[in-house]
């Protein structure tokens, strides 16, 4: 806590605040999303806004961007109070926002996307030429190469993000809000983004950088503000603080960031993938011959940038997506294209799905019903014709206690739990039954640090029980922290499998970007 | 704990009743405006309506009689809704149920009532199930949307029903297989045999048959199926989140086909009951308009079996009192159809009701989800 400084601390040399947030409170019925928040952003500064999911970061940014009206408090730009009723007002005040989910039209060109909403017109016609020239100029000035005429959907995610930033700059943004910009990037792309941010700063732009990744904050921010449960709990100077301090500030208690675990003692091969092929929902090839073994008592982490076939891989293994080629063997039995129920029962698989709202839970169901989602038909939950509500409730009480799911009651609807507790609910259901193979996709996506810690320790505990674990994550830190072996996926293939000891962030990062490192990787 | 949950249960029930009740009220008010605009007296009309529906034993009988088919077609639509399927085909399923039931009911002379009547009812259910299963199968295997298919099958059923009683014999053409040869040029079936008629609970002039218990039993059975059985759990899971259902190992395709078949069976039963209990024959004019009203009833009843019972009773009363209303106040009975249509409009657009009655958005859940989306990106 020594790093925490008074909220009004100013960076030496930074002029008057560009943007001030004074006593902002935002109430939603029954929830205080933001409570009396003060924040100042100076010209030419990168301010990191750190906080867990649900801490109120997005609410605050949506207020600054004119999407929400604050219940109380004031926003000042260049010293004068402003009132914003829509993003249009914010844009006019020189505020630009790059959303976590890009607001681009995939089938339109870069030029069209950038001018969308502020079209430049020449004698009644769209003036693409001059806009294109302006984009060229901007992209040169800020070192963000992009071809104005290319179509958005053909561009890699990192370039799409550049288009978003250029769009804000084209609208003369002086203040840029970047909402979780690194979540879709490879380590190398992240470094590239940071360089652009530094360049923008050097030219006088002010940036609010929203994230929950501590390393990145320390790398790029001039100042760090931490939100917890809607309140500003402190500011920190990256020069003097540490990841541990920041994590403690964010969560409100000490947390262990490094997972301590014994070396794996791997046994028999439990999951065997041989040249597995599969298509995306659109019928395009997603898996182009994936071969991978997972042994009992080891965690194999699949690293890679989102969209390289990881989702499809998990779905094929769990029977949710048909394999168009190759074979899936579970415990020596061919389970290629078996039904999900057969795989769950005979394969003794449990599956923590990538998107809990899509697969893992029924939002409208109670916690108790969600906890029997994969066993509702079995005794004692169902006896022939009727469901046994008492047994279901009792089962839920046990799991809720064992896995520390914080819920007012087991009758509460799943949707009303926090993200971390929803995930713990899914984990409780899947871990709470006898299994041999655990397939965990993004098991800690969008949840708080405390829950991450808990789920990670549960995964390691399963491994130590001799269970084979296939872990898919887009967070390289998670892969590095848990895996005994790391498989890197690129473009529907496993490009390399490295023992944890040989896997460096750099090596993995290159593999994730599709660079072949056969010369370097000796395994 | 127990008291807390029972209170929330009561508030939830009250909240569920709030919007439909206000929708009905708003529709009655709007109907009054229409009457005033056309120079009629809404007070006289509504008192006539009430008298017609509940004024005496015959009024009550009319209301109950009209309620029965609404219950079953309402349940049909509501059951499908639970699986996120939109069954617009209750009308056609009703016709198929009528035709199948009458085909059994006019044949098999000499069977005892305890065999003939159940057989005829089952035939009606089977006809409806068949007509419901077809869109289910087409949806699962070809992706054809059930709304389109059920609408088209309504026409097919209606034309099929007409063909079965086609009185072509008079012009030397082949008549329909169920046509009553003694009926001359009239297209209708012979009367259902006594052994296949649903007995009167209260005979003429009240004309309320035992089908009222079948409708009640169907509502309870559907409630039990949806909320108490593993099959109902599967159906609701498919309805809420098809992906989660597949994840949970539920046979989604089978569930969809089965649900559509069961929904069709309920509408088919409605047709069978009307035919065997009331009309005692089938003719094209005993068509399936009541099937379309099932959509309104299901929505007004918040797709809950008990809600459907209440909504069906409401519609039964409106229909039951319509004639008396016209007789006593001179307001055309057609105004009732306008009111019923307005009910649908208001139920389907709860936002309008909230605006008219200045209701706040439902508290915790709606607000919670709003907050969740805003925080989800953080």
From TrEMBL, chain A:
<keyword id="KW-0067">ATP-binding</keyword>
<feature type="domain" description="ABC transporter">
    <location>
        <begin position="19"/>
        <end position="254"/>
    </location>
</feature>
<keyword id="KW-1278">Translocase</keyword>
<dbReference type="InterPro" id="IPR050107">
    <property type="entry name" value="ABC_carbohydrate_import_ATPase"/>
</dbReference>
<protein>
    <submittedName>
        <fullName>ABC transporter ATP-binding protein</fullName>
    </submittedName>
</protein>
<dbReference type="GO" id="GO:0016887">
    <property type="term" value="F:ATP hydrolysis activity"/>
</dbReference>
<feature type="domain" description="ABC transporter">
    <location>
        <begin position="271"/>
        <end position="516"/>
    </location>
</feature>
<keyword id="KW-0472">Membrane</keyword>
<keyword id="KW-0813">Transport</keyword>
<dbReference type="InterPro" id="IPR017871">
    <property type="entry name" value="ABC_transporter-like_CS"/>
</dbReference>
<keyword id="KW-0677">Repeat</keyword>
<dbReference type="GO" id="GO:0005886">
    <property type="term" value="C:plasma membrane"/>
</dbReference>
<keyword id="KW-0547">Nucleotide-binding</keyword>
<dbReference type="InterPro" id="IPR003439">
    <property type="entry name" value="ABC_transporter-like_ATP-bd"/>
</dbReference>
<dbReference type="InterPro" id="IPR003593">
    <property type="entry name" value="AAA+_ATPase"/>
</dbReference>
<dbReference type="InterPro" id="IPR027417">
    <property type="entry name" value="P-loop_NTPase"/>
</dbReference>
<dbReference type="Pfam" id="PF00005">
    <property type="entry name" value="ABC_tran"/>
</dbReference>
<dbReference type="GO" id="GO:0005524">
    <property type="term" value="F:ATP binding"/>
</dbReference>
<keyword id="KW-1003">Cell membrane</keyword>
């Amino acid at each position: 806590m020594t790093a925490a400084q008074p909220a009004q601390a100013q960076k030496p040399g930074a002029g008057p605040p560009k943007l001030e947030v004074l006593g902002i409170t935002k109430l939603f019925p029954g929830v205080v999303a933001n409570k009396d928040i003060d924040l100042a952003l100076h010209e030419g500064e990168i301010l990191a806004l750190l906080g867990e999911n649900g801490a109120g970061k997005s609410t605050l940014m949506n207020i600054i961007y004119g999407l929400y009206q604050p219940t109380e408090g004031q926003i000042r730009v260049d010293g004068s109070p402003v009132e914003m009723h829509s993003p249009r007002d914010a844009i006019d005040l020189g505020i630009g926002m790059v959303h976590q989910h890009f607001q681009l039209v995939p089938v339109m060109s870069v030029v069209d996307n950038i001018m969308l909403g502020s079209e430049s017109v020449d004698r009644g016609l769209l003036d693409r030429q001059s806009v294109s020239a302006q984009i060229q100029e901007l992209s040169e000035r800020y070192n963000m190469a992009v071809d104005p005429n290319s179509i958005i959907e053909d561009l890699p995610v990192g370039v799409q993000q550049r288009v978003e930033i250029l769009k804000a700059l084209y609208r003369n943004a002086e203040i840029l809000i970047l909402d979780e910009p690194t979540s879709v990037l490879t380590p190398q792309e992240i470094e590239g983004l940071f360089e652009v941010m530094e360049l923008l700063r050097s030219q006088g732009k002010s940036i609010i950088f929203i994230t929950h990744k501590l390393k990145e904050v320390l790398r790029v921010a001039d100042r760090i503000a931490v939100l917890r449960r809607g309140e500003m709990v402190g500011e920190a100077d990256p020069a003097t603080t540490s990841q541990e301090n920041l994590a403690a500030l964010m969560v409100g208690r000490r947390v262990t960031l490094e997972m301590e675990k014994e070396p794996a003692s791997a046994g028999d091969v439990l999951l065997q993938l041989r040249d597995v092929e599969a298509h995306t929902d659109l019928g395009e090839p997603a898996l182009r011959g994936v071969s991978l073994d997972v042994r009992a008592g080891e965690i194999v982490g699949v690293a890679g940038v989102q969209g390289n076939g990881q989702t499809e891989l998990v779905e094929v293994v769990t029977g949710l997506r048909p394999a168009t080629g190759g074979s899936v063997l579970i415990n020596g039995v061919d389970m290629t294209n078996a039904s999900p129920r057969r795989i769950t029962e005979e394969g003794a698989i449990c599956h923590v799905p990538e998107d809990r709202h899509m697969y893992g839970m029924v939002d409208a169901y109670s916690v108790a019903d969600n906890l029997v989602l994969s066993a509702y038909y079995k005794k004692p939950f169902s006896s022939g014709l009727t469901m046994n509500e008492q047994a279901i409730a009792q089962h839920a009480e046990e799991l809720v206690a064992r896995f520390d799911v914080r819920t007012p009651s087991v009758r509460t609807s799943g949707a009303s739990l926090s993200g971390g507790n929803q995930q713990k609910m899914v984990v409780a259901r899947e871990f709470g039954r006898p299994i041999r193979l655990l397939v965990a996709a993004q098991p800690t996506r969008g949840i708080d640090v405390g829950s991450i810690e808990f789920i990670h320790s549960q995964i390691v505990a399963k491994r130590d029980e001799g269970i084979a674990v296939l872990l898919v994550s887009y967070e390289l830190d998670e892969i590095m922290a848990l895996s005994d072996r790391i498989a890197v996926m690129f473009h529907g293939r496993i490009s390399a499998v490295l023992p944890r000891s040989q896997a460096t962030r750099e090596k993995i990062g290159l593999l994730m970007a599709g660079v072949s490192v056969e010369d370097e990787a000796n395994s | 704990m127990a008291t807390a949950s029972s209170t929330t249960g009561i508030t939830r029930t009250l909240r569920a009743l709030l919007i439909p009740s206000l929708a009905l009220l708003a529709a009655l008010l709007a109907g009054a405006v229409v009457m005033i605009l056309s120079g009629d007296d809404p007070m006289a009309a509504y008192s006539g309506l009430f008298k017609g529906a509940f004024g005496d034993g015959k009024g009550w009988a009319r209301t109950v009689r009209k309620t029965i088919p609404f219950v079953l077609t309402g349940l049909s639509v509501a059951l499908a809704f639970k699986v996120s399927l939109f069954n617009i085909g209750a009308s056609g399923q009703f016709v198929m149920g009528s035709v199948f039931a009458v085909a059994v009911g006019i044949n098999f002379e000499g069977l005892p009532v305890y065999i003939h009547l159940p057989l005829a009812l089952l035939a009606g259910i089977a006809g409806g199930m068949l007509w419901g299963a077809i869109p289910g199968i087409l949806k699962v295997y070809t992706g054809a949307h059930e709304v389109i298919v059920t609408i088209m099958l309504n026409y097919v059923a209606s034309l099929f029903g007409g063909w079965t009683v086609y009185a072509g014999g008079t012009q030397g053409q082949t008549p329909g297989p169920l046509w009553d040869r003694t009926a001359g040029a009239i297209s209708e079936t012979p009367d259902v045999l006594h052994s296949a008629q649903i007995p009167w609970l209260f005979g003429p002039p009240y004309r309320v048959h035992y089908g009222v218990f079948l409708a009640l039993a169907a509502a309870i059975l559907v409630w039990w199926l949806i909320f108490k059985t593993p099959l109902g759990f599967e159906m609701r899971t498919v309805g809420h989140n098809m992906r989660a259902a597949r994840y949970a190992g539920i046979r989604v395709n089978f569930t969809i086909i089965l649900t559509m078949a069961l929904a069709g069976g309920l509408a088919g039963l409605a047709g069978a009951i009307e035919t065997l209990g009331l009309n005692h024959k089938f003719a094209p004019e005993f068509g399936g308009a009541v099937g379309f009203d099932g959509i309104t009833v299901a929505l007004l009843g918040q797709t809950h079996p008990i809600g459907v019972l209440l909504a069906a009773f409401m519609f039964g009363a409106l229909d039951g009192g319509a004639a008396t209303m016209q007789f006593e106040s001179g307001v055309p009975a057609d105004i009732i159809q306008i009111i019923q249509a307005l009910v649908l409009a208001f139920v389907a657009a709860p936002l309008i009701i909230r605006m008219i009655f200045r209701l706040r958005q439902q508290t915790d859940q709606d607000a919670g989800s709003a907050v969740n989306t805003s925080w989800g990106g953080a």
